[in-house]
């Protein structure tokens, strides 16, 4: 959700709670053991509302949503954060609010999900990824430590990424973050004017 400079939330989706619940139910049906809603509140640079989060308008939606999520034993976390710009109007970075209740945590945990045993399709997927991580770490002769299994959309294969590895596919070198740079072409003026 985006909160603009005046503190007004855009696209608050106050009437979308039903749809959100249905999405979470789908995750549970899939067999996921820990189903939570994580809601991001991005504040525009200079938004005063960031310091006073949550504003009344946001609070009312969060309160209503929390009640519905609780009924179904889902978890609920909220993450307020804001952009900041320096004197030259350049992007300076992202700021999170200090969590008064849980030190070192950026999200505010409003509800803890009731955990169930992993099952069904979720369990099959988790076992498949676990077996892949074990065999791939042997193949690459890299120990299994803090690793991420990720899927490359280009070569349609799984990759095992270690903490210090580059975040790109080691089979086809496609970066996993953002889209690869478009090829650089010489601009032909005659082509350009034809359009
Ligand atoms: Zn690839």
What does this protein look like?
This protein is α/β, with parallel strands linked by helices and 195 residues long. It folds into two domains: 2-111, no CATH class; 118-180, no CATH class. It has helices at 17-30, 56-71, 120-139, 189-194, and strands at residues 2-3, 9-10, 36-43, 75-85, 91-96, 108-111, 147-152, 157-162. The protein is globular and about 55 Å long. The site of zinc ion (ZN) has 7 residues, from loops.
Question: What order do the helices and strands come in, and which of them pair?
Answer:
Layout (H helix, E strand, L loop, with lengths): L1 E2 L5 E2 L6 H14 L5 E8 L12 H16 L3 E11 L5 E6 L11 E4 L8 H20 L7 E6 L4 E6 L26 H6 L1
Parallel strand pairs: 1-3, 3-4
Antiparallel strand pairs: 1-2, 4-5, 4-6, 7-8
Bound molecules: zinc ion (ZN).
Mean pLDDT: 83
The rounded distance between the terminal residues' Cα atoms is: 38 Å
Strand count, sense and barrel status of the largest sheet are: 6 strands, mixed
Fraction of helical residues: 25-40%
Number of helices: 4
Oligomer: single chain
Tally of extended strands?
A: 8
Number of domains: 2
Q: Which radius of gyration do the C-alpha atoms yield?
A: 22 Å
Q: In terms of structural class, how would the helical and strand content be classed?
A: alpha/beta
Uncertain parts: 180-195
From the spread of the alpha carbons, the general shape counts as: globular
Order of helices and strands: EEHEHEEEHEEH
Report the β-strand fraction as a percent range: 15-25%
The ligands bound in this entry are: zinc ion
